[in-house]
Amino acid sequence: MKDLPIQKVLQKPYVFGRMVRWAVELSKFDIQYEPRGSIKGQVYADFVAELSPRGAPQEVELGSQWMLSVDGSSNQQGSGAGIVLEGPNVVLIEQPLRFTFKASHNQAEYEPLIAGMLLAREIGAQSLLAKSDSQLVTRQVTGEYQAKDPQMAAYLRYVEVLKGAFAAFELVHVPREQNARVDLLAKLASSGKGGR
């Protein structure tokens, strides 16, 4: 299955030159065109696994730290998030995510943190430094604030569970100016012009 325009070539009998020869050669085989389906969340882990060298699985060094930058956005047009995961050996994954549900601003701030932590866990990161410009989320995760709202408490419990997957995990608050790249991805996703 490919996203190439081969369907048109296989269905047109009046093609000229080399295309006719290809059509004749390909007609011997039972080739049918099927469009590629949509790509889902597992694509991140598959993509990184595909880029790694073949052979023995590559171990991520315990001392190598991965950096996760996250931001969420919620407005009248929708909700979305931006995730940037940077690892050793110049591994960089950037993704806007559009939510299919209506999310509050605080939910939109927790969602990319959880998605990024899941992605880092799938990749095999052992040490993760996460950055967010949400004071509420960072202070709830560090224990400075309590999560009184039941939904925020559920998000916080899930983050606590995910923290156990890493040998070292730290979430730090950064000013919005230092989070500009993921802020742009989040705004793109929430506007309906990007993301999945």
Structural class category:
alpha/beta
Write down the overall geometry: elongated
Strand order of the largest sheet: 3-2-1-4-5
Report, as a whole number of angstroms, the end-to-end distance: 21 Å
On the 0 to 100 scale, the average pLDDT is 75
Q: Which fold name fills CATH's third level, the topology of the largest domain? A: Nucleotidyltransferase, domain 5
Tell me which CATH architecture of the largest domain applies here. Answer: 2-Layer Sandwich
Poorly predicted parts: 54-60
Question: Which sequence of SSEs, written as H and E, runs from N to C?
Answer: HHHEEEHEHHEH
State the helical fraction. 25-40%
Main sheet characteristics: 5 strands, mixed
Tell me, what is the CATH class of the largest domain?
Answer: Alpha Beta
Radius of gyration: 22 Å
Q: What count of domains describes the coordinates?
A: 2
Number of helical regions: 7
CATH superfamily of the largest domain: Ribonuclease H-like superfamily/Ribonuclease H
Q: Can you walk through the features of this model?
A:
The chain is of the alpha/beta class and 196 residues long. It has two domains: 1-37, no CATH class; 43-190, Nucleotidyltransferase, domain 5. The protein contains seven helices and five strands; from the N terminus they run αααβββαβααβα. The protein has helices spanning 6-11, 18-27, 43-51, 105-123, 135-142, 150-163, 180-190; strands at residues 65-75, 78-87, 91-98, 127-132, 168-173. A hairpin with a 3-residue loop joins strand 2 and strand 3 (91-98). The two termini are 21 Å apart. Residues 54-60 have low confidence and may be disordered.
